[in-house]
Structure formats: structure tokens, C-alpha cells
Design goal:
The protein has helices at about 5-10, 15-40, 45-55, 60-85, 90-110, 115-140, 145-175, 180-185, 185-190, 195-200, 205-210, 210-220, 230-240, 245-250, 255-270, 275-290, 295-320, 325-345, 355-370, 375-385, 385-420, 420-440, 450-460, 475. The chain is mostly helical. Helix 16 (about 275-290) runs antiparallel to helix 17. The radius of gyration is 24 Å and the shape is globular.
Length: about 475
């Protein structure tokens, strides 16, 4: 069947079935990479307990093992977009999967902490590229009717990967097998390269490179419900509209306010301490009074299961309750739980019911983060800017997010040792309260509004433009038209 025929007549049922399978394979492949990313992010939480003893690490060195991964992620995120544009989304995903497999295996074989830090920095670069390339790959290659669910599934898969790593850590904690904890994800990372090699790149990338006919072919392969030539033409028009965005443009009116909002949201998302729980939960539970590897490794698994449930719940209610309600309720719950943790650690006698109150507070804190910040940060980033600034704005927000993550990863264990758990969590509580005030003042309610309308809000100084006053036909005769508002 020729390309011209594809644009004129719908594909036969068998072709539609094959295309639906191809679209789902794109989504499934992206989800598997999301699981591996989540696993590699969380696996250090259990491994650090045992490798710290083997390598005789200080608190600062423990922080470096975590923060150096985040430092690599910042580098990877900075080059990820350019790499995906230059080599292709598929090539970037292959680099990510191959790098995961190699560097995960090398981290499991590290003979000392210096080698481990170097390998984890390189793994961090792969993670940073993945943060940019994987959602891009899924969003651009799946049919419109399942695109939202596919991107959401990638986010859920990432949380699922963190859940898996805690159960694996628990299963291996009895023998202190930290090398297996770090290295197990090398196998699925290698295996996911097989479907990646068989899949094409995305239609959008082919259009970006001027390969229009190939873009039409792939569009017909992945989305049989649309006219492939019409869709490819629309992609080309969108790409033309998206050119010209720069960081400098974000700092000037009318989008400086929107830039402040998304950068602030990205920074507060991490500085309030979510990755302190992800990276150091066994140590936190030990400080809380729980004893034995069974409790200190199994309890974080239930915390992450609650996070997974909260993420799914947010996806289900976000368009019903509204963005602000979900975001503010999530952050507000974080503030309350950090206050509870401050009180728990401040008692000085952690045993019995007090320890379980602390556990419940950690669980609800983490679930509240995923319900609010975790589910909405990318939604707001994608809505705040026009097409030509959307990717630039998302990159700036991601940088702020990763810098805050770097600070938490590096300094949390040293702060716990120096100031104590009560003061550390009190400090995080103050930051969470600041985040709540910031979100309450700056976050708009965008439920049910078109992108152009939302961008009009930011261009109008953080106020919704007034609707034009209806004018009767008779009133228009002999008078000038009323001024129109910019949307």
C-alpha cells in the first residue's frame, strides 16, 4: 500500500490491529525504562547501609555517594534534549538503556568508593538523559487516544520501580548483599534494548530532520485512526511555532512571572525533603527506633506502595478536583506530617506507639508529595508557556529541581548527625510551609482551560483576562468596537 493510499483511505482492520500493537509497544518500552530509572534511583537506599560499613564511609561520604548521581543527572538533563534532537529519540533511548546496563553492573563490582562514585556519576548522566528522552519518546510515538495514559503510565512506572527496589532490598538485606541490590537492574536494561532496536524513531523527529515521507510511514504504523499526511503537516507547523525559545526570553515580560512560578515549584518540589526519604529511609527508620533489617527495609516498601497509590489517585482526580486543590492539599499534608515527625523525634524516647506514629507520618508525607508535587509539577510546566518556550521552561524547572535534589542528597545525612533528627525535620517543615505559601500565592487553577487561555493569564500579570463584554449589533453602528482582551 502506498503512502498516498494511506492518506486517502483508512487502513484495513489487520493493519489497524498491528498499528495498535506498535503504539502499545512504544508505551510499554518507555514504561520499562521508567521502572529501571525508578529502581536505580532507589536502590542505593538499602545498599548504602551495607557498603558504608564495607568502605568505612563518613556521613559526608555517604552524602556524596547519593549526590554525585544527582550531579550526573544535571549534566545528563542539560545534554538530553540536544542529544535526542541530534541523534533521535530512539538513539537516545538506546544510549540510556545501554548505559544503565553497563554502569549498573560496574557499580555492583566497584572495589572502592572512588570507583563507585565515578561510575555513579556516569550512571547519573544516563538518568538525566532518560528524564528528558523517555517522556519525549513516549509522548511523540503513541497514538493521541492513549497518549495521556501512556505518559501517566511512565510516571507510575517510575514510582513502581522505586517500590520494587525496596522489596528487593528487603529480600537481600539478610545477607547484606549490596552489590546485588545495585546490580540487578542491569539485566532488564539490557533486555529492553531488543524492542528498542526493532522500533522506528518518532514521527516528530523524522519531521525535525526533514524526512517527511518516513514520518508519514511511521505515523500510519502507530496511529491508524488519523490521516497520516494531515498529522505530519500539523507536526511540521507545531515545530515551526516552537522555534526561537531561549532562557533570556523567560526572564523578560510577559513570561518572567511564569518562569518564577515553575522554577520556584521545581525547587520547592525537592528541597522539602522527598528524596531524603527515598535515599535514606533505612537510616531514618533506625533513628526512629525500629530495629533489625527486616523492619528497616520492609517498612520503606509499604511507604512506596502508598506513594504509588497516591500517584494513581491524583491521575484519577486531578481533572475533577482541580490543580490547586490537589497541589495545596498535598503540600499542606506534607507540612503537617513534618510537624508530626519533629514532635516524634523531639520526644527523645522512641519506642512503642511513638515509632509507629513516626512511620505513619513518613508514609503520609511521601504519599502527599506524590499526590501533589509529584503529579502536578510537569502539568504546570507544560501549561505555563507558549509552544516556543515550553521546552526551555521545562528545562529550567528541571535544573532547579535537580539542584535542590543535589543539596538534599549531599547534606541530609550530615545534617541529621550534626543537628539531630528533630531539628532537621523541623527545618524541612519550615521549607514545606514556605512552599505552601508560595503555591497558594502563585499557582493558578487551570482546570478546564485551554492552553492559550492559561498563557493569557501569565501575560496578564497573573490575572485571568476579563471576557469581552457582549455588544448587540445595534450598538456597533456608528461607534468603535470595544477593545478586545489578549488570550
Amino acid at each position: 500500500m502506498s503512502i498516498a493510499t494511506l492518506s486517502a483511505t483508512p487502513p484495513p482492520p489487520s493493519s489497524k490491529t498491528a498499528a495498535h500493537r506498535t503504539g502499545r509497544l512504544f508505551a510499554l518500552t518507555g514504561a520499562v525504562v521508567g521502572v529501571i530509572y525508578g529502581y536505580d534511583t532507589g536502590s542505593i537506599s538499602g545498599a548504602l547501609v551495607f557498603l558504608s560499613k564495607d568502605f568505612h564511609l563518613t556521613e559526608a561520604e555517604k552524602g556524596l555517594v547519593n549526590s554525585i548521581l544527582v550531579g550526573g543527572s544535571i549534566v545528563g538533563a542539560m545534554i538530553g534534549g540536544k542529544l535526542a534532537d541530534a541523534l533521535g529519540r530512539k538513539a537516545a533511548m538506546l544510549i540510556v538503556a545501554g548505559s544503565y546496563a553497563v554502569f549498573v553492573a560496574l557499580s555492583a563490582l566497584a572495589p572502592n568508593v572512588v570507583v563507585l562514585d565515578v561510575v555513579r556519576f556516569l550512571l547519573g548522566i544516563a538518568i538525566g538523559i532518560s528524564i528528558v528522552a523517555a517522556p519525549l519518546y513516549v509522548a511523540e510515538s503513541t497514538p493521541a487516544r492513549i497518549r495521556g495514559a501512556s505518559v501517566a503510565a511512565y510516571q507510575v512506572a517510575t514510582v513502581a520501580g522505586i517500590v520494587i527496589t525496596y522489596f528487593v532490598n528487603w529480600g537481600l538485606s539478610g545477607g547484606g548483599h549490596w552489590r546485588w541490590m545495585l546490580g540487578l537492574s542491569a539485566l532488564p536494561a539490557a533486555l529492553v534494548m531488543i524492542p528498542l532496536l526493532r522500533l522506528p524513531d518518532t514521527p516528530r523527529w523524522y519531521v525535525l530532520k526533514g524526512q517527511t515521507e518516513r514520518a508519514v510511514e511511521v505515523m500510519a504504523m502507530t496511529d491508524p485512526d488519523v490521516d497520516p499526511r494531515t498529522e505530519v503537516a500539523a507536526v511540521g507547523a507545531a515545530l515551526a511555532e516552537e522555534s526561537g525559545g531561549s532562557v533570556r526570553s523567560l526572564l523578560r515580560k510577559p513570561y518572567a512571572r511564569a518562569a518564577l512560578f515553575v522554577v520556584g515549584l521545581g525547587f520547592f518540589c525537592q528541597i522539602t525533603g522527598i528524596n531524603a526519604v527515598t535515599y535514606y529511609s533505612p537510616q531514618i527508620f533506625e533513628e526512629m527506633g525500629f530495629t533489625g533489617s527486616g523492619q528497616n527495609f520492609l517498612l520503606p516498601s509499604f511507604v512506596q506502595l502508598a506513594s504509588l497509590a497516591a500517584t494513581v489517585l491524583a491521575i484519577l482526580v486531578i481533572d475533577r478536583l482541580g490543580r490547586r486543590v490537589v497541589l495545596l492539599s498535598g503540600i499542606g499534608t506534607m507540612v503537617v506530617m513534618l510537624a508530626v515527625l519533629t514532635a516524634v523525634f523531639g520526644t527523645g524516647e522512641l519506642h512503642g506507639a511513638t515509632t509507629w506514629v513516626g512511620f505513619a507520618a513518613i508514609l503520609l508525607f511521601t504519599a502527599a508529595f506524590n499526590f501533589g508535587f509529584g503529579s502536578l509539577i510537569w502539568v504546570y510546566a507544560s501549561e505555563a508557556f507558549p509552544a516556543q518556550l515550553r521546552s526551555t521552561g521545562a528545562s529550567v524547572m528541571l535544573t532547579a529541581d535537580l539542584v535542590a535534589n543535589l543539596l538534599i542528597a549531599q547534606f541530609f545525612p550530615s545534617l541529621m548527625a550534626w543537628a539531630g533528627a528533630a531539628r532537621t525535620f523541623a527545618g524541612l517543615g519550615v521549607l514545606a510551609l514556605a512552599a505552601l505559601v508560595f503555591a497558594a500565592v502563585t499557582a493558578p487553577e487551570t482546570k478546564g482551560r485551554q492552553l492559550e487561555e492559561i498563557q493569557g493569564y501569565w501575560r496578564n500579570g497573573g490575572r485571568w483576562p476579563a471576557a469581552p463584554t457582549p455588544v448587540s449589533p445595534g450598538a456597533l453602528s456608528g461607534s468603535a468596537l470595544p477593545p478586545t482582551t489578549t488570550s
